[in-house]
Write a structure and sequence with these properties.
The chain is built from six helices and no strands. By secondary structure, the protein is mostly helical. Helix 1 packs across helix 2 and helix 4 crosses helix 5. It is globular, with a radius of gyration of 16 Å.
Length: 97
């Protein structure tokens, strides 16, 4: 019988990160899981969401400020459009802390 991977879906990964946070091992886990480029991309994505939610800058201005392509900003914008106002408020509060 073929071997099956231990982790097969996104929720399991979220649970792993949650557990690593509870045991104060999240920094080690995320550093090991993500390459330096992926960590940089994650920083950019957080900033994209924050700027889109603030609504003060155009997508082109955000692109120039963060040094990412307009298409990356558009993907973030499209993801936000699929969220409820409650979800948008929750992420805004999370990003403003």
């Amino acid at each position: 019988m073929a071997q099956q991977p231990e982790y097969t879906d996104w929720q399991q990964i979220l649970d792993l990160i949650k557990h690593s946070t509870a045991t104060e091992q999240h920094e080690m886990l995320l550093t090991m899981l993500l390459t330096p480029d992926e960590r940089d991309s994650l920083v950019a994505r957080v900033n994209i969401l924050r700027e889109l939610l603030k609504g003060d800058l155009s997508q082109r201005q955000i692109s120039q400020m963060l040094g990412v392509g307009v298409a990356t900003i558009t993907r973030g914008s499209n993801e936000l459009k699929s969220k409820s106002s409650e979800e948008k408020q929750a992420i805004t509060e999370l990003l403003e802390r």
